[in-house]
Amino acid sequence: MSVVLRGGRLGLGGRASDVRIENGTVTAVGPSGSLDAAEVVSLGDATVLPGLVDGHVHVEQWVRHRRSVDLSAVAGPAEAARVLRAQAPPAGQWLSGRDIVPALWSDPPHKRFLDDALRDVPVVVRSIDLHTTWFNSAGLSLVGLAGHPTGVLRETESIEANHRLSELTPAAEVDGWIAEALAELPSLGLTGLIDLEFSDNLAAWRRRATPPVRVHAGIWTPWLDAAIAEGRRTGDVVADRVRVGPYKIVSDGSLNTRTAWCADPYPDESFGLCLVPADQLETLMRKAWAAGLVPAIHAIGDRANTSVLDVFERIGCTGRIEHAQLVSLSDVPRFASLGVVASVQPQHAVTDRDVADRLWAGRTDRAFAYRTLHDAGARLELGSDAPVSPLDPWQAVADAVHRSDDGRPAWHPEQALPLDVAITAACAGRASVEVGAVADLTVVAGDLRSASEEALRSTTVLATLVGGDVTYQR
After folding, report:
1. Where does the record place the Amidohydrolase domain (predicted)?
2. Which domains does the chain carry?
């Protein structure tokens, strides 16, 4: 059956137009009133956009985050332990906390604080950037690390411990949480996401029910050989609405954990961590690229971004850099010239501004430098890094445009993106609704060009379509 969406403006400032959809594809676009179909839906004062896509999500961690105790407001480890003690679960269950910011604490976390408050209850607390996990002794025993001296795990050790912890919950229970959470996304206008969970994502998404959004399931190194042996290539179909995503490597750490690999020192004279040496990174990326898997490399510090861009150049492949938070000015043009997507999360720019001012003092003019990257021709794609930031594309767009979310003046307003650029980046780099494209569409009320910051953050989604199927209708 064919359907015409009648009269909505196409994109920001576009004229009132008709869009015909047949068999899940946009087959015609014309002036309002010029197209007919078996079904006509009048849009009135609405805007039709290419479907919104979150370019960086950790799906399982996101749903677990929704079931964790919020510790974002605590000022130190003792206070965090007191808050957690008040949330002590029934016997036999473990307790999860989230969103601590140790970079702003005067006392570092240590297992003794949690042991004193909750000795017999396994406790796991994740930092706001997911690069640090803080356990008590009972929690360490759960993941096979009894006797760890501090209970504070960082980077690869933290990622692997969290994966072992995730395996303690039955897969069917986790899948139920995921189905419940994903059901909310079409109401935000989302039509797709890239899942970069550290897991056997292809197997996980094969067993799950059809999601309401398209999922591109990322592959990590422990599962790379199996994916290659199966002949998996980025973009291949895994299940209904699920495709093979990129190949993910974490090359350095994070700002909050002070492990992002930088050319200049942090206040403690450290330079962060190179987690994957360049020769090993090149070997892995070549292997994946030769098999048809597109690399998506986490790089936050400027030294890490330089190293990763160097490897992209030596291989001659395209791909993505995830985060690109601090970039040397000499590296900015290389994103465009090498065809490397800058996959960025604008919410980090506003939530991390105080930490950046403290730890990257004197360098913040090129931190989260979205306008500089755009002006140099880089393709930007927006995401949330959920659960690091809320999985809400309108918050990401507003943060990219306004560079503040708490009433303070914009942080480095020279790096703010024009609204049309931010919207395009939120639509996975697609600027318009085009004939021949898959009918993944987001229909919103009114003209976004006149929206205030508050109105932009609470944009009214009228309808969301995935492959022409209505996944949400207001």
Report:
1. 39-472
2. 1-51+432-474 (2.30.40.10), 52-60+172-431 (3.20.20.140), 65-154 (3.10.310.70)
